[in-house]
Specification:
The structure holds 2 protein chains of 2 kinds.
Chain A: H1 14-21, H2 31-35, E1 55-57, H3 64-67, H4 70-76, E2 80-86, E3 89-90, H5 97-112, E4 118-119, E5 127-134, E6 146-153, E7 165-173, H6 179-184, E8 189-190, E9 194-199, H7 201-215, E10 219-221, H8 226-238, E11 247-254, E12 260-267, H9 268-282, H10 288-291, E13 294-296, H11 297-315, E14 323-329, E15 332-335, E16 339-342, H12 348-361
Helix pairs in contact in A: 5-7, 9-11
Chain B: H1 11-14, H2 18-22, H3 24-38, H4 44-54, H5 65-80, H6 85-96, H7 102-110, H8 120-132, H9 137-149, H10 158-162, H11 164-169, H12 177-187, H13 195-208, H14 212-224, E1 229-230, H15 246-259, H16 297-303, E2 309-310, H17 317-322, E3 327-328, H18 340-346, H19 352-371, H20 383-399, H21 404-413, H22 423-430, H23 438-454, H24 458-486, H25 502-526, H26 531-544, H27 547-551, H28 561-568, H29 573-599, H30 608-627, H31 641-646, H32 665-675, H33 690-702, H34 706-715, H35 725-729
Parallel strand pairs in B: 2-3
Classes of the chains: A alpha+beta, B mainly alpha.
């Protein structure tokens, strides 16, 4: 559906933004304030719809290792993350991370032993939580700094002096978040809409409930839709010019009985050739220099049509009836269910930008 | 979650007698002295009290008939009338001092039934005797149990709070611990929660395990100081302490009832939902619990000087009012929806961020439940969704305002709604949406509603009509409130572009009324002018016809022919009567608009078109019902003469007057029979003669057709004879 929306509609028009930013108006104060499409209990206009971007910049290789602590970077890559979206955090302070670490570890200890009170200040908890800022992992000036959370614990039957091991990790980030949206939020809010977690379900839900209670936010699952998976494939393929993506693997599910799963792997150079031809065809009449840095949704659609046609020619099976579930290449992998793995850090900004956009689209207000 | 329940004590009321009560023990003797001198007949009960206050320590108990006699007397009085505050002081002092050993002490404690209040002093002295440490443990327990039982009757609690630390020290005594915890629970204030006490309790916890009394006290500590202690309460844990002595309690209530003294009972305002044990995959519809903010450091910078009271600690409306200036919002704003008390507060919250937090939560819940859920089926017949929406609706009803997140949700949801899922709730939510700018109203509201309307059942059509009527009513009410305040200053506001001006508002209302007119016309056609649908449509026009008079909105829109004619030719008299009433109100509105126009030059202008349309309808109605000139030339509905003749209807021009109108025919017949009971053949036309006609009208009006009566009185002049109605109905 989204792919046919040609309009390059970005997030809400400025007018509504101004509306929310406008200072709080007293209840029953003004005719205008009431009858403006907002009411007191609602500070935003409900009339605007955010849409997915239909044009994106081509991925650029980032020298991310120069900016981000390699230790942090090694924690972020090569792990599969389960994604969620998070509504803006209220009263979150990057300066309070030490205190958050203490509170969260006490909270987890209390959750683990239902009904047993836990002292917050006591540091002898069996769980050690570490909040840290991932310096440099942000693109625009409006992006709040990424926050990394690690939970360490002693193994259950470990020796006395055995060091604590990391058992859970997660992060909250916002890369190239829509600046109009970010600026429209009151200062008390920090928007880190993308949450990735890796570790046991129990701990994930404990961390989520602590965040909910502490920062009055909500967590919801973030799937990566078909369109977004296709976008990722196109963006990754486009990187082949600079970095060998080695292969491009896509898994489709076809709604037949019994369900049919099609695993479709394309050689990286073949994919690149197809992509290049699509690009050249689409850009035929246009100014080369101007458009070389952007990719249009039309090109993505054409690219996929090409891939599907090729498959049809060989196997007489039309993939457009099915849904794309899983993609992977040397740059990483992504699943419809919202699992993502980034294998190569130089292009992670591009991937995270797309995912931040998806998460922002899920924001209820 | 347990909450402190001690807050409803009679503290304030008794503050004035506090000085009295603090000296009551010493004074009691003097009072008794005076009383003795006054009373000529020696009161045996007084003598008994005197015995207990004067008796020497070490007096033998066994074989002491005097003691036995006095004790029995006190017991009798206690159980029948209860003991006065002075008597309580004397007896407690006697018992706790162990002047005559442990056994009378236990007996005395068991009969300490207060008649009205218990002096705080007596209890403080009791605690002092506890500290002496001679009393056997079982008796100590008995004493604390007694204090817990009569806690609400203690006249003041300030001194008890002052010795919080002493009371706390008894917590290490294993047998006393559950009762001390309960007492502390009743006494604890924020300033009592200290790190060392938390540590002590945690230490006890590690020794005794997860005891409910410790957990309750700790959870209260957590309410006050979440930064010191954290705790998750298992759902199966029972709430409340069970330390009351039931026999005491029943005797006490009996005595109190007899004395007509009312124990102030603590009424918790919070609605506590029975959390269902049923596991559910999604939990986004669960209201978060009301908890105070844990993360104080971040905020205290700006509030450090200000004392704040978390909303969790308030349990009554009066407390809310007292603390209104210093209430701290809960950690999760969504929790406000679960408590009526909190809703009262929400009504005065001005904080933009707080409302945004609420909207984030609410929008999230809506989206997850109704829009993002991939599996679809879970929402069908979901009891939880129903409860959630009902709760939200009652909150919106209470606040008389809709939440913007529910508004934005509705715009998305209308596009995918099947019109049946939670229909009454969704329609009720929809009727709460604020005014939509006319430029957008078509795409976001009318298009999806039109589709739903045309493809759904009669009952949905009726429901939607009702919803749109409520929506219009709310818009008009807003207008009348705000227009009054702003004194109709409608200069265009420049700094926010979507701010609405009066003309913008008028446009929106106009769009809505025209839209409903179209829906109604089509709907009546589709449903064969169903009387139920017609009734809902007339409801709507009852609102529309009064926009100027009732709500001060300078706008008059007359019903389209698709609504007017089905109502005029309806087979039930009620619809015709209501139409007459509506036309009467239109006339009143138009007349007053016109007179205002003359009075102040710049008053709004009602287009000629409106007057024309109205007059035409009026003429049709008068000609049809009164003048029997149904198809007169120049009227809106015209048929060729030949065609009418061909129809073979005799006197077709009279077939819709008040006598022959299908809705009123039965009345005409009835009237005819009453008027000329002896007549054999019925000639309804004879009613048309001037005298019986006016009697017939009177008869109709007495049948409750007020609408017709008003219509008649305003539109048809008194000297009316059949024929000149038309000239009277014309507007100038």
């Amino acid at each position: 559906m989204e792919q046919h929306q040609k309009s390059v509609a970005r997030t809400p028009p400025t007018s509504t933004i101004a509306q929310r930013k406008s200072k709080s108006i007293g209840y029953r104060q003004s005719y205008h304030s009431c009858l403006s499409a907002t009411s007191r209990l609602g500070l935003t206009s409900a009339l605007t719809v955010r849409r997915l971007n239909t044009t994106r910049r081509t991925p650029k290789s980032h020298n991310i290792t120069d900016k981000v602590n390699p230790e942090h970077l090694s924690l972020l890559v090569k792990t599969e993350w389960q994604l969620s979206y998070v509504t803006p955090l209220y009263q979150f302070r990057h300066t309070q991370l030490r205190s958050y670490s203490r509170q969260l570890s006490a909270f987890i200890a209390a959750e683990k032993q239902q009904g047993l009170a836990v002292e917050v200040e006591g540091l002898h908890s069996s769980f050690r939580v570490l909040f840290s800022v991932v310096q440099g992992l942000s693109e625009s000036d409006d992006d709040p700094e990424t926050v990394l959370i690690q939970i360490h614990s002693k193994p259950l039957f470990g020796k006395q002096d055995e060091p604590q091991k990391p058992i859970w990790s997660g992060w909250l980030t916002c890369i190239n978040g829509n600046s109009e949206y970010l600026r429209s939020l009151p200062e008390d809010f920090t928007c880190l809409p993308l949450f990735g977690s890796n570790g046991s379900e129990d701990l994930t839900s404990a961390v989520k409930s602590w965040f909910k209670q502490t920062f009055d936010c909500c967590f919801g699952p973030l799937e990566i839709s078909n369109t977004n998976l296709q976008w990722l494939v196109a963006l990754w393929t486009n990187c082949h010019r600079e970095y060998d993506i080695q292969y491009l693997k896509m898994i489709w599910t076809l709604p037949v009985v019994p369900p049919l799963q099609v695993s479709y792997t394309v050689n990286s150079t073949d994919a690149w050739d197809l992509w290049n031809s699509v690009r050249q065809e689409m850009r035929a009449g246009e100014d080369e220099a101007e458009n070389v840095n952007s990719i249009d949704i039309e090109e993505v659609i054409h690219f996929f049509e090409g891939l599907k046609n090729h498959f049809y020619r060989h196997f007489r099976l039309d993939l457009s009836g099915g849904s794309l579930n899983h993609i992977s290449s040397a740059l990483g992998s992504a699943k419809l269910s919202g699992r993502i793995k980034i294998a190569y850090s130089r292009y992670m900004i591009t991937t995270l930008t797309l995912l931040t956009e998806c998460a922002l689209l899920k924001m209820p207000v | 979650m347990a909450y402190p329940q001690n807050t409803s004590d009679s503290e304030r009321s008794s503050l004035s007698d506090q000085s009295v009560s603090s000296r009551s023990f010493n004074r009691s003797l003097r009072v008794a002295e005076k009383k003795r001198r006054k009373d000529t007949a020696e009161d045996p009960f007084f003598l008994a009290l005197k015995y207990f206050s004067d008796v020497e320590a070490g007096t033998p108990v066994t074989g002491n008939d005097e003691l036995e006699r006095n004790l029995v007397l006190v017991e009798k009085v206690a159980h029948s009338k209860g003991l006065s505050p002075e008597a309580i002081s004397i007896m407690l002092e006697f018992a706790m001092s162990l002047r005559m050993g442990n056994s009378p002490c236990v007996r005395v404690l068991k009969c300490l039934i207060p008649a009205s209040l218990v002096p705080q002093d007596a209890i403080v002295r009791g605690v002092v005797w506890l500290c002496v440490g001679k009393i056997p443990i079982a008796t100590q327990v008995l004493f604390i149990k007694w204090v817990l039982t009569i806690f609400d009757l203690v006249d003041a609690k300030d001194q008890l709070r002052a010795i919080y630390g002493f009371i706390f020290s008894f917590i290490t005594e294993e047998n006393l611990c559950p009762f001390i915890c309960h007492l502390l629970y009743l006494l604890t204030r924020k300033e009592n929660v200290r790190v060392f006490r938390v540590r002590k309790l945690l230490e006890l916890q590690s020794k005794l395990g997860r005891q409910p009394f410790l957990i309750h006290l700790l959870s209260l500590y957590k309410v006050f100081c979440p930064e010191l202690v954290t705790l998750s309460i298992p759902s199966r844990m029972k709430s409340g302490f069970r330390n009351h002595n039931s026999t005491w309690k029943s005797v006490l209530t009996g005595v109190q009832k007899r004395n007509g003294f009312h124990i102030p009972s603590s009424v918790a305002f919070t609605i506590k939902d029975k959390t269902s044990s049923r596991k559910r995959k999604h939990c986004h519809l669960e209201l978060p619990a009301l908890t105070s903010v844990a993360n104080k450091e971040a905020q205290t910078e700006q509030f450090s000087s200000k004392k704040v009271v978390p909303l969790v600690q308030l349990h009554s409306f009066s407390q809310l009012l007292e603390n209104l200036h210093c209430i701290e919002l809960p950690a999760q704003m969504g929790s406000l929806l679960g408590s009526t008390l909190a809703l009262h507060y929400l009504d005065c919250v001005q904080d933009e961020s707080a409302l945004l937090r609420l909207n984030f939560w609410l929008g999230y819940a809506f989206h997850e439940e109704f829009l993002f859920c991939g599996d679809g089926g879970t929402t069908q017949n979901s009891e939880e969704a129903l409860q959630f929406l009902n709760k939200l609706l009652s909150a919106q009803h209470f606040l008389q305002e809709g939440f913007s997140s529910s508004e934005s949700f509705l715009y998305k949801f209308l596009k995918v709604w099947d019109g049946s899922l939670l229909c009454p709730q969704i329609l009720a939510l929809l009727s709460n949406i604020p005014v939509v700018p006319s430029s957008q109203i078509g795409t976001i509201l009318f298009e999806p509603l039109m589709q739903l309307f045309l493809t759904s059942s009669l009952f949905f059509k009726c429901g939607l009509m009702e919803c749109l009527n409520n929506m219009l009513l709310k818009w008009l009410t807003w207008h009348s409130v705000y227009a009054l305040e702003d004194d109709l200053d409608i200069s265009l506001n420049s700094h926010t572009s979507i701010n609405m001006t009066l003309s913008g508002f008028k446009d929106s209302v106009m769009e809505l009324v025209h839209f409903v007119g179209r829906l109604a016309s089509v709907g009546l056609q589709l449903e064969g002018c169903h009387a139920l649908l017609l009734s809902f449509i007339l409801d709507f026009y009852e609102t529309v016809c009064d926009t100027f008079q009732k709500y001060g909105l300078p706008l008059v829109i007359v019903p389209p022919p698709g609504v007017f004619y089905p109502a005029l030719f309806a087979t039930d008299p009620v619809s015709v009567d209501r139409l007459a009433y509506i036309m009467y109100r239109y006339k009143v509105n138009l007349m007053s608009a016109k007179s205002q126009e003359k009075l102040t030059k710049q008053a709004f202008h009602i287009s000629r078109q409106t007057f024309c349309e109205f007059n035409q309808s009026l003429v049709v109605m008068v000609n049809c019902l009164w003048n029997s000139k149904m198809f007169n030339p120049g009227m809106a509905v015209q048929l060729g003469d030949e065609l009418l003749l061909k129809s073979n209807v005799p006197q077709y021009w009279a077939s819709f007057d008040l006598i022959h109108h299908p809705a009123f025919m039965s009345y005409a017949v009835d009237f005819h029979q009453k008027c000329w009971p002896e007549r054999q053949d019925m000639d309804l036309s004879s009613i048309k003669h001037s005298k019986p006609w006016s009697w017939y009208l009177e008869y109709l009006f007495t049948q409750g057709y007020e609408g017709l009566k008003h219509f008649f009185q305003t539109n048809i002049s008194q000297q009316m004879t059949a024929g000149d109605g038309q000239s009277n109905t014309q507007q100038k």
